[in-house]
């Protein structure tokens, strides 16, 4: 089992920045690829970014490319999402998730709310 706890969400004005953190505990964190997802009200959950176990491979959704950066610190068992140039349509609950060997996301955090005001 892997337990994931997100933090760092909040209310920010358009153009501002936030850094989300996802602290992991349980099984060896460095075994897992990690992803960030988000779900806006009335919409389906969507992929935001993903980082491989050692940070060597990163994928970012086109909607956030150039504005959001995913990173990880295996020593601290934490994955981060740096969000810059935030827009009102970035408003959502943001979730981190751990990727299993079959590449599905098997463990999820409880989510952290990000609200961007115009």
How would you portray this structure in words?
It is a single chain. This protein has 118 residues and is an all-beta fold. Strands 2, 4, 5, 6, 9, 10 and 11 form a 7-stranded mixed β-sheet that branches. The protein is globular, with a radius of gyration of 13 Å. The chain contains no helices and 11 strands. Helix content is 0%, strand content 55%.
The percentage of residues in β strands lies in over 45%
Q: Which structural class fits the helix and strand makeup?
A: mainly beta
Order of helices and strands: EEEEEEEEEEE
The strand count comes to: 11
Q: Whole-number radius of gyration?
A: 13 Å
Report the mean per-residue pLDDT as an integer: 95
Please bin the fraction of helical residues: under 10%
Structural shape? globular
Which regions are unreliable across 5 or more consecutive residues at pLDDT < 50?
none
User: How does the major sheet shape up?
Assistant: 7 strands, mixed
> What's the N-to-C terminus distance?
40 Å
């Amino acid at each position: 089992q892997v337990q994931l706890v997100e933090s760092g969400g909040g209310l920010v004005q358009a153009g501002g920045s936030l850094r989300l953190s996802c602290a992991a505990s349980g099984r060896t964190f460095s075994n897992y690829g990690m992803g960030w997802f988000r779900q806006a009200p009335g919409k389906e959950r969507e992929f935001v970014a993903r980082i491989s176990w050692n940070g060597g491979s990163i994928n970012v959704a086109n909607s956030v490319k150039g504005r959001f950066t995913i990173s990880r610190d295996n020593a601290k068992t934490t994955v981060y999402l740096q969000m810059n140039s935030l827009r009102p349509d970035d408003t959502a609950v943001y979730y981190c998730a751990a990727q299993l060997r079959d590449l599905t996301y098997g463990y999820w955090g409880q989510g952290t709310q990000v609200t961007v005001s115009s």
